[in-house]
């Protein structure tokens, strides 16, 4: 019993079709250079907390948060990734099967914006084609040290059909909004069942299976 | 007689022949100058003994060589890893498999499998038997009878199939198993029993039980089945061994090993937490089900988070992944790659793709890939340096961080700190003792003075009484003295008595005073 209790997080992932309000689970991956505030953003969104020196008491690398829309409940499973350049090549393992991605940059750091652009390019090339992408310019509270202009980022986001907002984990500006915007763009369509991107692949296999294995 | 004679003659001849041979070869064949005996291979006793020793050595050597040959080594290791947890059960239930062999799904299928040796079947039996019992108990408790029968039949068929298909590659087997999971869960999802919503359990729960049972009962077939993967595992282990010098400092982790002050109070150190993480990740290999393996991984990762928390570092992925890599390098967990492959192939997709277990599993896969591909660039050093460290030609410089990772240095530092503290305490104690000494003598004197004064001012009742008595006695003696004086003049003989009298009274007063 105790063993099964440990999997509650993953089990809750199944969708429960109760009336008009469905729960759908989505995997959201956070990308961006290290120290742009990826985990602060998530902590603000999930726990409503912000720590100047990041003295967080919980593991902020993997968190879940539920967002209620009009006709459905969206459960985000948020996967943080290591932003250091040396781990860049491992990123595909993280965004494999993700339905949404937030690419974060620091508005006071031009370099992080360039990195963000690279991430977007990579996601467009390698992630699943209908992934919902958002660009977040974090640390908007430090606008006096800004090096990335709002218009520049906005134009870039429009060109690449990205959701774009400038956020601040410190003041919580636009934090919930960007997650809500993503939730609205996600396909809530699939009827109760595994909300995974592999559903269509598995269906034919399953039919073939029932012939060979299940009497 | 005639019939007896020839054999005697023959005997004689042979004797003669023997004697002739013995004359030539009576000496030890080693030519040591001593006589040899036929049963010792014509050697003398000394040479025979040394010959025996040589033979034994040779025999042992060949035996060891076959034992140490790669395939056998792996075979044995697999055997030992599998049977490690059940040796005690094996002792108590040696014939468990004989008794219940025919009754259920598991045993006939495992005996069909060509990979399993007879000994392994026996060692495999108790654990899968337990899991079979748990499985059927779970099903019968939570599901209607007809459905249970259906599920058991399906799973039995699948396990048999897994054991039969031995020419198939692990990846194909994985496809089959995943399709099987998919098929069963679809079937359950469409079953009216589940759609009615009357059951306490959900399809996902039942699927987890099926997965658990399948993992345990087909473990020998599913885990690390091909020798190529064993080779890959061994080479990864060698690689990790050669990277022993890559410490937390090189990986730029934010672990703070020096944070002792905080640890003392909470009694959990960064190092302890990391040790816990390492032991958990090593423990992964000891479990059979994907679920338990993943549980170990989750515990390992939680320990890492606690270590980061203890180091007052942010617990985001930027910090987590380097520490996980460090833990893998330090722990060098056995057959880790096979474990990862086993989980990714045969665990339920929901475990591997989503949830905490999925996230940590992805991190583990990433960390392993990073270790495999680790080069001078990923550690930001020049190539010659990297290769020199890896081949052992050069030792990496001792930086503060690298030292902090070293267990021996760490414990020495800790002991030094403890000794320092003890010394300090001792000195403090000495100072206190001196102070106390001074204070005591001073107070003693003061006390004596005060006591005397006090007694002067407030004599106690008893003292007064005694004083009165004494005065009384003194007066009496005085009286007696004056009387005796008057008497002495008149009587000389009685003077002796009168002299005794005051002595006695004096004695009485002194005893009273005492």
UniProtKB/TrEMBL annotation, chain A:
PROSITE patterns: RAB (PS51419), RAS (PS51421), RHO (PS51420). InterPro entries: P-loop_NTPase (IPR027417), Small_GTP-bd (IPR005225), Small_GTPase (IPR001806). It is found in: Early endosome. GO terms for molecular function: G protein activity; GTP binding. The keyword Isomerase does not apply. Residues 1-20, 189-215 are annotated as: Disordered. GO terms for biological process: protein transport. It holds the Pfam family Ras. It is an enzyme of class 3 (hydrolase). Signal peptide: none annotated. Keywords: Endosome, GTP-binding, Hydrolase, Lipoprotein, Nucleotide-binding, Prenylation, Protein transport, Transport. It catalyses: GTP + H2O = GDP + phosphate + H(+). PANTHER family: PTHR47978. Belongs to the small GTPase superfamily. Rab family. This is small monomeric GTPase. It comes from Diploscapter pachys.
UniProtKB/TrEMBL annotation, chain B:
It holds the Pfam family DUF5601. SUPFAM superfamilies: Glucocorticoid receptor-like (DNA-binding domain), VPS9 domain. One of its GO terms (molecular function) is zinc ion binding. GO terms for biological process: vesicle-mediated transport. The lineage of its organism: Eukaryota, Metazoa, Ecdysozoa, Nematoda, Chromadorea. SMART domains: VPS9, ZnF_A20. This is Rab5 GDP/GTP exchange factor. Residues 230-380 form the VPS9 domain. Keywords: Metal-binding, Zinc, Zinc-finger. It comes from Diploscapter pachys. The keyword Zinc applies. Residues 97-126, 474-514 are annotated as: Disordered. InterPro entries: DUF5601 (IPR041545), VPS9 (IPR003123), Vps9-like (IPR045046), VPS9_dom_sf (IPR037191), Znf_A20 (IPR002653).
